[in-house]
């Protein structure tokens, strides 16, 4: 059954229509929500947020002392002896402890780095020795090849000489 000549035209037209509809749907899907929320934000029918109730006195805004860290959470860790001991420390002791911890971490990192450098040097020297062995082996093989070529050339000359003598004697 053959299609009419207009069939290809109609098929292309339907395909174009479907593509246009899909494109419009995608555009609406992408643009629609942002336009909806923008228009909803501009509407006056919605009541504004209720005001926050804050009971802040002006005493809270006085300059803070360094001891605020230790007194900011008085009930925190009340039953934990380690936490009590930490909270009793003054600010300078906490800072010096932090510096000592950072120094220990830095020293550990340096030791680890030094160990890695030493390992890298050992690996480098190992590969250098292996490369030297390989170079020596290549030189030895090259010398042996050259010697074998010379011996082969001598054998060829000797064979030609014996062949020539054999022909002279009728062989």
| Record field, number of beta strands | 0
Oligomeric state of the chains in view: single chain
What share of the residues lie within helices?
Answer: over 70%
The outline comes out as flat
Strand content: under 5%
Task: Give the averaged pLDDT, no decimals.
Answer: 81
State the major sheet.
Answer: none
Stretches where pLDDT is under 50 for at least 5 consecutive residues are 61-67
Q: Order of helices and strands, N to C?
A: HHHH
Q: Termini, distance in Å?
A: 91 Å
Our Rg estimate from Cα atoms comes to: 46 Å
Number of helices: 4
- Structural class per helix/strand content? mainly alpha
InterPro entries: DUF1068
Coiled coil: 138-165
Transmembrane segments: 13-32
Keywords: Coiled coil, Membrane, Transmembrane, Transmembrane helix
Could you provide a short overview of the structure?
The protein contains 4 helices and no strands. The chain has helices spanning 7-42, 68-71, 81-88, 91-168.
Q: What does the model show?
A:
By secondary structure, this protein is mainly alpha-helical. The chain has a domain of 80 residues. The chain has four helices and no strands. The longest helix is centred in the last third of the chain and has 78 residues. It starts with 6 loop residues before the first helix and ends with a helix.
């Amino acid at each position: 059954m053959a299609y009419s000549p207009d069939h290809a035209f109609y098929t292309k037209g339907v395909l174009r229509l479907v593509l246009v509809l899909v494109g419009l749907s995608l555009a609406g899907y992408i643009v629609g929500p942002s336009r909806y929320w923008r228009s909803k934000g501009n509407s006056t029918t919605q009541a504004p947020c209720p005001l926050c109730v804050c009971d802040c006195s002006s005493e809270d805004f006085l300059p803070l002392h360094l001891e605020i860290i230790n007194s900011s959470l008085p009930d925190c860790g009340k039953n934990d002896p380690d936490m009590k001991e930490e909270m009793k420390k003054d600010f300078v002791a906490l800072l010096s402890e932090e510096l000592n911890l950072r120094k220990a971490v830095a020293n550990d990192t340096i030791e680890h780095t030094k160990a890695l450098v030493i390992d890298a040097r050992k690996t480098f020297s190992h590969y250098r020795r292996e490369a030297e062995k390989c170079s020596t082996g290549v030189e030895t093989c090259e010398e042996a090849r050259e010697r074998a070529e010379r011996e082969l050339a001598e054998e060829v000359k000797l064979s030609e000489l014996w062949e020539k003598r054999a022909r002279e004697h009728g062989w």
